[in-house]
Amino acid sequence: MDADAEIDHEAITPVYAQLVAILRARIERGDWAEGRRIMSGPQLEQAYGLSRDTVRKALRVLIDEGVLTAVPGRGTFVAPADGAEPSRPDGTGESAE
């Protein structure tokens, strides 16, 4: 799916799966680099006109696939290609938890 695609509520593809494809395309396009925080849940809800549950389901799929990683209290980040946890913003390389 195109990174600039819009959600089609009439499509046979579930809405959460469309969001998964859009977010994956945006990551592949470089909108968010490895280790960088993506849009928050509420921002995604507003940007795509979706419910909180739909956004959470899409994020959970990408987290389970290792594309994203969630850091409690900090947000959801693009997972590094090597599967390591995101670094702290101060560059220490320690886990952000």
From TrEMBL:
Region (Disordered) residue spans: 78-97
HTH gntR-type domain residues: 13-81
SMART domains: HTH_GNTR
GO biological process, one term: negative regulation of DNA-templated transcription
Pfam name, any one: GntR
Xref: PANTHER family: MANNOSYL-D-GLYCERATE TRANSPORT/METABOLISM SYSTEM REPRESSOR MNGR-RELATED, MANNOSYL-D-GLYCERATE TRANSPORT_METABOLISM SYSTEM REPRESSOR MNGR-RELATED
A GO term, aspect molecular function: DNA binding
Key words of the record: DNA-binding, Transcription, Transcription regulation
Record's protein name: GntR family transcriptional regulator
Tree of life domain: Bacteria
Organism, scientific name: Glycomyces albidus
SUPFAM superfamilies cross-referenced by the UniProt entry: Winged helix' DNA-binding domain
UniProt key word S-adenosyl-L-methionine: no
